[in-house]
């Protein structure tokens, strides 16, 4: 992790007590998200209800919990070949912990010709913080892989697993 990113995270985590964690989280996300890559919010049912969710976290994160019906595609091991059966006009929502890794995978999908690809705003952390359910083995759970102690500060609800 580079020094600048570490300092930003430290500043935001310290200052979150003074101006609200949600404001700090929004500031953090602005630093990661490209303005020209489309995002979707959990409450946008017209997209969310018809989308195929692709989980771009690592397998151990996915196995703790994921969005219902999500397909695991990973990040470090991501391969376009794993998506051969998905039509290029399918509505796809990519997600990870906060949306940085998923945006990278989303860009790869767009470059490969997938037409309707969105990044889930705030990732699985925001999803859970907004009281949307996550699943493990097709059963609802409150556990969420928090990636690390540093990143886990952004997960306000659910049971953190490291």
UniProtKB/TrEMBL annotation:
**CDD domains per the UniProt record, alphabetical:** RHOD
Task: Name the InterPro entries for this protein.
Answer: GlpE_sulfurtransferase, Rhodanese-like_dom, Rhodanese-like_dom_sf
- Classification via SMART domains: RHOD (SM00450)
- The UniProt record lists the Rhodanese domain at 47-136
Q: Name one GO molecular function term.
A: transferase activity
PROSITE patterns per record: RHODANESE_3 (PS50206)
Chain coiled-coil ranges: none
So which residues are the signal peptide here? 1-20
Which Pfam families does UniProt cross-reference here?
Rhodanese (PF00581)
Could you tell me which PANTHER family the record lists for this protein? FAD-DEPENDENT OXIDOREDUCTASE, PYRIDINE NUCLEOTIDE-DISULPHIDE OXIDOREDUCTASE
User: What protein is this chain from?
Assistant: Rhodanese-related sulfurtransferase
Q: What organism is this sequence from? A: Aquiflexum balticum DSM 16537
């Amino acid at each position: 992790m580079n020094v600048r990113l570490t300092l930003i995270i430290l500043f935001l985590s310290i200052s979150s007590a003074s101006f609200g964690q949600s404001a700090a989280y929004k500031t953090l996300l602005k630093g990661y998200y490209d303005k020209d890559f489309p995002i979707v919010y959990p409450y946008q049912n017209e997209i969310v209800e018809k989308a195929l969710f692709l989980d771009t976290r690592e397998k151990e994160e996915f196995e703790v919990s994921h969005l219902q019906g999500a397909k695991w595609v990973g990040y470090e091991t991501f391969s376009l070949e794993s998506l051969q059966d998905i039509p290029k006009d399918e509505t796809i929502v990519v997600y990870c912990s906060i949306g940085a890794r998923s945006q990278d995978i989303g860009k790869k999908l767009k470059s490969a010709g997938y037409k309707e690809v969105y990044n889930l705003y705030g990732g699985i952390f925001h999803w859970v913080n907004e009281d949307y359910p996550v699943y493990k083995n097709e059963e609802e759970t409150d556990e969420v892989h928090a990636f690390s102690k540093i990143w886990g500060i952004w997960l306000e609800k659910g049971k953190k697993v490291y």
